[in-house]
Structures are given as structure tokens and as C-alpha cells.
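ARCHIVE ENTRY
Sequence with per-residue C-alpha cells
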Amino acid sequence: MRRSRLSQPLIQRPNRGDKFHAMPASTPTILATSGGLRRGSRTSFEFAPLLQHAIELSGVAGRAPRVCHIGTASGDQLWFNALFTEAGLAAGVTVSHLNLFPMPSAADPAELLLGQDVVWVGGGSVANLLAVWRLHGLDQVLREVWQAGVVLAGVSAGSVCWHVGGTTDSFGPDLRPVTSGLGFVPHSAGVHYDSEPQRRPLFQKLIGSGVLPAGYATDDGVGIVYHGTEFVEAVTEVRGKGAYRVTRDGGRREGGRGEAEGPGRDGGQAREERIEPRVLPGAS
């Protein structure tokens, strides 16, 4: 009988002989963010502290870090790949890309990704991303990669995808829930919590009504670190921004200091507690 994910060893190193050269993190690690890139001075944009922190979490030392960018959520735009590569070069990072349009750019995506220190997933349509990944079996490949110690990270759709679900504009300008995430962590994700007005009330409503499980939300510039399936800390590349723990509460109570409440459809309440993130080096 196949063991459940939670009963498996923290790090499962694949038996791929000399093809596996990554510097694995000490435990399966995810950095789910609403940031990671910012406007550059000599390049169109640059790796911001959140993306740099993903590299730090991998534990890589003694060579250039290896980051693979997956841009499925935005349709594998080649112009964006070029700018991401340029930003990586400026940061001293070896960048590769796994494209799935019009066909997978690697004959063996697992081999490519297992050789990385970080997999960074860009923003866009999380609904389309999940459908295309599953069609190509990339959902199972990424689980293997995560369990092998390659850090999984990303922004927006590249944050929601690792969770059970979250809020999305994949279906139109009015946000809707997505509940078909990979579920590597058993929480929901709220992204762009302070910059898009529909995000916060809908995230609370979906958790209060039980459509989504309890989860974590991030203001722009903030990320959540998970080791295995457990929350470790919130980190930020923008001072003054916050992270939030949002849970379901069936009764109506006055929110305490640092807490807020919002009603769900069935009368349940979503309780929000602010988490002060650790400020990363280089934060603005």
C-alpha cells in the first residue's frame, strides 16, 4: 500500500544517478508570495528579496544558484522569459525555463526540475495553470521535486497553486474561488490582499462559509514560508506590509486587537489575525 504524503520521509531523494545535482533544502520547502520581482536599475526588473530568499532557503553554496522559471499561468511568454533570464544574469543566478506551450520544452521535465535549487512559478491564470499541469503530469513531477528538497516558490498564481485553493481572476474581472489546487499544503491562499479590493472580503467569505479551508493571506511584497505542510514564518520585501491568518469561526464575537471578522454565506465567521512578517535584507 502506498504511504500517505504525511507519513513519508521529509526528503525523498530520487534514484536518478548522476543526473541529480541540486543542493536540496533540509526539508520540503515552499515560499508562497505576492512579490519577488521589482523594477531594476539596469534591467527591466530584478530579483527582489523574496526571490532571493527562496534561493537562500535552498541552502545552495559554492556555485551559482539554479532557478527554473515556469510561466504556464501567463502562457509561456517568451519576452518575459528573456527578461527573467536577464534579471537572473544580473543576480549571478543560472536561469532555465520549463515551457509547456506549444509542447514541453524539456524531454524529461522531472530531470530538469530535480537539477534546480528553486522552481519559481509566475503569475497569471491559476485555473489554466492547474489544468495544463495535470494534463502533462507536472502536478506529480512537482510533488516529487518538492519532496526531494527543491524549493517551490512563486507569486500570485504561483502562490495559490501549492495550496488547496484561493481567490482568482482566472474566470473574469469578478473574483471567484478556485478549490482545485495541488494541496501540497492543506491551507488556502489569499494573494494581493492589500492591493485588489475584492481579495480580502471574498477570501474571508469563502473561509467563513467553508468553501475554502483556513489559510494565509499576503499583502503585496510578503511571502509565507512552509516547511513540509507547516507554517514557519512570514517574510517581507516591503516594510509595513503584513501577512494574515484567516480561520473559520461559527459564532459571532468581537475581534480582539489585531483581529477582524467577516461573515460567511451560512452565518459562519472568518476571523483574521495579522502576522508581522520578518523584514528581509534589501527590503524597501
